[in-house]
Structure of Stage 0 sporulation protein A homolog:
Amino acid sequence: MLSRILIVDDSLIDRIMIQEMLADYETITAEGGSEALEKLRTDKSVQLVILDLNMPDMSGFEVLETINNTPEFENIRVIILTNYEEVDNEIKGLELGAVDYVRKPVNMLSLLVRIKNHMQLIQQQNEVEMDNKKLDQLVYQKTREVVNARDITINALVSLLEVRNIETSKHTKRTREMMSILANHLKHKHIFSDILKDDYIDLLVATTPLHDIGKVGICDAILLKPGKLTPQEYEIMKQHVDCGVNALQNELISEQETPDFIKIAIEIIAYHHEKYDGSGYPKGLAGDAIPLAGRLMAIIDVFDALINKRVYKEAYDFEETVSLITAERGKHFDPLIVDAFQDVKESFLAVINKYLVEDDDDETDYC
C-alpha cells in the first residue's frame, strides 16, 4: 500500500495549493484538527501529515500532542506549517514531536525536497518493519522446531520406560500436570517469584517426565519386584539417579552450550530423591542447597506414588496421602512447598481422578 499524505489546514486556498505542489503524491485533506484525527483513525495508509499550527477548532499543537500520545499513530511523521516570524512555534512543534517544518508562504522546491526525503525515510522504515516481521516469523518457526525436537526427544526417552511397563504413561502425564499446578501457584509467592518465571515453568513442566529415566539401567528383577527391596537391592535402585544424569551429561560439550531444558532436566533427575533434612540420596543435600526443581519434583513424585497402586504396594486414599506428606514437612519436603501443596491438593486430586476416568483398570476413585 502506498503511503498517503494528509494536508491539514483551515485555509482552502492553502490546501489546494499544497495539493497541486504534491501532484505526484497521493494526498487527502482536512480543514481542522478534529477532522484530521478522524481521518488518521480511519485511513491507515496515511504516514505523513503536513500540519498547520494555527487553526481555530483545534490547534496544531493539540493535534501533535494527540498523535504522540496515541499508540496507533506511532509511525506517523508530522511536518508543521509556520509563518516566517513564528520561530518559537517551530521550536515548540519540534519539541512536541514534529520531524520537520515548512514556512508560509510555502516554497514549492523546498516543500518537494522535504517531502521526498521524508517519503524515502518512510519507505525505508516500512521495509525494515517488513523485514522484522519476516525475521520474527522465522524465529518463531525455528523456536517451534526446537521445542518440537525437545518434546520428541523427551517422549522417546520416556517411552523406554513405558515399554518395560515400569510406569504407565499416566504417571508422566499426571506429574506434568501437577508440576504445572504447583509451580504456577508458587510463582505468586515472593520468595519464589524471581526463579519461577513463565519460561522456567514451561521447561520444568516439559522435563518432568524425565525424572526417573535412569531406571532404564536397572534390571527388571529389582524394578518390577512386587515386594519390599532388600538393602542390597535398594542400593542398586538408588543408582537410577546417577544413571539418568549420566545419560544426559555424557553427550554435553560444555556448560555454556548446554540447552536450558537439559540443565533443568538434570536438576529434576539428580535431586528429586534428596530430602530437606539432608537424609536423601545421592548427595545428601539439605534445605535450599537442593535445587528448586528437585524440591518440587520430590513432593509431586511421592504424592503420585502414594495415591496410586504400584507393583510393590496398594494405593493410599487421598486423606491418608495428604497426611503422610504433611507429616514430612521440614523432613522430606521443603516446608514452604508443603504449604503450597496444601493450597493446591484438591487440584492434584482432580488430576488423579481425571486419568482414572480414562483408565481405571488398576485404580479406584479416591474422592
About this structure: Confidence is low (pLDDT under 50) at residues 362-367. The first strand starts at residue 4 and ends at 8. The CA atoms of residues 271 and 290 lie 7 Å apart.
